Amino acid sequence: MNFHVLTLFPEMIQAGLETSILGRALEKGFISLEAVNIRDYTTNKHKKVDDYTYGGGAGMLMQAQPVYDAYQAVKSKTATGKSRVIYVTPQGAVFDQQKAEELAREEDLVFLCGHYEGIDERVLEEIVTDYLSIGDYVLTGGELPAMVMIDAISRLVPGVLNNNESAEFESFQDGLLEYPQYSRPE
């Protein structure tokens, strides 16, 4: 499984996912992670990636050009060139275990992390295949939801967990919650 994250804060993604179980999975090659800085693809000499919304309103909007160019660079590196592109947004369908299982079957996943008031709709219409949310609240950006989804998906990739049965019998298996568990001693 190859994860590609389009973000303004690649260091946040790397710091959050290159430790613990996922860090070991990265080292062993069960998953790969590429955090792509959208600013690297702007044509603006000051690395600006946002602008005021057309028609006014509060806040700034991420521009289409740097997002699109960053996506094209990632697309050229994927095996098939046809990856699912997930835009993490409060307006999306709620991410759950069933969606994690579906996405774990993909070879490449691209996560698009918005900021400010979001991303210019023109680029979303062009590249996004899935709009997903982790709940009904607003965060400062899409990085935390992307990391949550990557964590949930990664544990379903064979080899990521030391015991593959751990992923087979999850808390949400068959729509039920897992029973209480206790550590030793009795």
List the helices and strands and how they pair.
Blueprint: E1 2-7, H1 10-17, H2 20-28, E2 32-37, E3 50-52, E4 60-62, H3 64-75, E5 84-94, H4 97-103, E6 108-113, H5 121-127, E7 130-133, H6 143-154, H7 165-168
Parallel strand pairs: 1-2, 1-6, 5-6, 5-7
Antiparallel strand pairs: 3-4
Helix pairs in contact: 1-6, 3-5
Mean pLDDT score, rounded? Answer: 90
Overall number of strands: 7
Structural class call reads: alpha/beta
Order of strands across the main sheet: 2-1-6-5-7
H/E element sequence: EHHEEEHEHEHEHH
- Helical proportion? 25-40%
Head-to-tail CA distance between termini: 40 Å
Biggest sheet character? 5 strands, parallel
Instruction: Tell me the fraction of residues in β-strands, as a range.
Output: 15-25%
The shape, in one word, is globular
Whole-angstrom Rg: 18 Å
Seen as an oligomer or otherwise, the chain set is: single chain
| Number of helical segments with 4 or more residues | 7
Low-confidence stretches: none
Structural write-up:
The chain starts with a strand and ends in an 18-residue tail after the last helix. Helix 1 runs parallel beside helix 6 (143-154) and helix 3 runs parallel beside helix 5 (121-127). A 5-stranded parallel beta sheet has the order 2-1-6-5-7, sandwiched between helices. Helices cover 32% and strands 21% of the residues. It has 7 helices and 7 strands; from the N terminus they run E-H-H-E-E-E-H-E-H-E-H-E-H-H. It has 186 residues and is an alpha/beta fold.
